[in-house]
Design goal:
The chain has five helices and five strands, in the order ββαβααβαβα. The protein has 124 residues and is α/β, with parallel strands linked by helices. The chain has one domain: Transcription Regulator spoIIAA.
Length: 124
């Protein structure tokens, strides 16, 4: 399952659980791109549980949208990653260090309040 919602004008929430196939990835990325269109100085809460690698078809779909996905980077300042997997939290933080302009911080699943508080810091 991969679901993307927009609870406020500059906030997206993404929930990922289990493996993702090509059709699910296609819909989710289209939703992500559409919902991010008018976002600036955005915040993202990304919750990942029971992670399984996407199918090869899903990865192919992602590659076809890479240019649009890279374009989204400038729309978001912060991303909190909630996950039951330590290596995913660490990988997200490393990714944040590689892309200027966005801070990414990992949190354990039970730390939702801390993640929300961190996302709210620095908001004008």
């Amino acid at each position: 399952m991969l679901a993307i919602t927009k609870p406020s004008a500059n906030r997206l929430d993404i929930k990922l659980s289990g493996s993702i196939d090509a059709e699910t990835m296609r819909k989710a990325l289209d939703d992500l791109i559409d919902l991010s269109e008018d976002v600036s100085q955005g915040r993202m809460l990304y919750t990942i549980t029971d992670f399984a690698f996407p199918t090869l078809g899903a990865i192919g779909v992602e590659f076809t949208r890479l240019s649009k996905l890279f374009g989204l980077l400038g729309k978001f300042d912060r991303c909190a990653v909630l996950s039951d997997s330590g290596w995913l939290r660490k990988a997200a933080e490393v990714e944040g260090a590689l892309f200027p302009g966005i801070e990414i911080k990992g949190f354990e699943l039970g730390e939702t309040a801390a993640a929300e508080a961190w996302l709210a810091t620095g908001v004008a």
